[in-house]
Amino acid sequence: MAQADPAHPDAHGATVPDLDLGKTKGSKSKGHTFTSPAERSVRKTLPAGKAGAAAAPQAQSVAANPDLAVGVYAYGTTAHGVELDTVITSAPSALEVTVNWGDGKTDVLSASGDTTLTTPHTYAEVGSYTVKVTVKDTANAVSAVNEVVFVTQGSDFTPYAPTRLLDTRDGTGAAKGKVAPYGSTRVKVGGNGTIPAGVTAVVLNITVTNTTSAGHITAFPEGTDRPTTSNVNFKAGQTVPNLVIVPVGKNGYVELANRGGQSVDLIADVTGYFSSTASSGYTPITPSRFVDTREGLGTVKGQLGGRKTFSTQIGGLRGVPQGITAVALNV
């Protein structure tokens, strides 16, 4: 599963800040970098007596700490994690530093004079967040405020009702007809149906059928170089499915390449996607058997008849909580 590209702003309502993927401040080498330099600081004069201090008049305050400023540099460290460097320029005075992470949580730190504070934070959900840093010099009645919009570098999973996006046998999602030997076809993912544009990866059940020779299928994001690995291997006369997780190209497509010497039909069904917006997420559990018709586990004992169905309970059993929205099953 490839790492997602930086996300567009999501429902948190933030705007994209200056983004530098290849350059980091100093010698640091971390994930995506979001910066707002000290020149963007907004200075304010604090009211007299703020926080119990006997503040000097404004003119004296500015003269006492004329260069008070703060630069903020946010680095992605994990799928949900950020590390914030707060770079303070100040006279040698006691400072109160408040970091508002944009998710309802804050950290209050102490500092003095020119300094750099490094603070980690983990968000409960992926997305974009406005991180605001306020530096107060109460003795001199002056403050400096700066903020940066940080976008988490991870993607979370959203289940999607199984839907056929491609079937070359009948022209679903592409022109009708087999995929030529060493040719390829595209699958529209982002913006298809209710799948949002900008998804970073997709879960597809890819099936190859009507095969007349051996070969393999490779799935990869459209607009990128085709990898040499296979996702579905097949022999002549076989119909073979396989579940794959593949990144989605910038235009919302996934490419399926036929690496066999003869034409084949391809089918692709979506079962979920990954995005950099708040979503259901995924929680692994210890593998546990919920259904076995041979012994009557989870349903009545006996083979399932042709074109028949049954229901079985998942939520609330064997460590799975109530209220789940989807489940990963090996059937």
Can you walk through the features of this model?
The chain is mostly beta strands. It has one helix and 18 strands. The protein folds into three domains: 18-151, Immunoglobulin-like; 156-275, Sandwich (Jelly Rolls), CATH 2.60.120; 283-331, no CATH class. 2% of the residues lie in helices and 40% in strands. The chain is elongated. The two termini are 22 Å apart. The model is unreliable at 1-27 and 50-62 (pLDDT under 50).
Number of helices: 1
Helix coverage percent of residues? Answer: under 10%
Number of domains: 3
Mean pLDDT: 87
Shape: elongated
- The CATH class of the largest domain is identified as Mainly Beta
Distance between the termini: 22 Å
Estimated share of beta-strand residues: 35-45%
Low-confidence stretches: 1-27, 50-62
Sheet with the most strands, sense and barrel status:
5 strands, antiparallel
Strand order of the largest sheet: 1-2-4-5-8
Report the count of strand segments.
18
CATH topology of the largest domain: Immunoglobulin-like
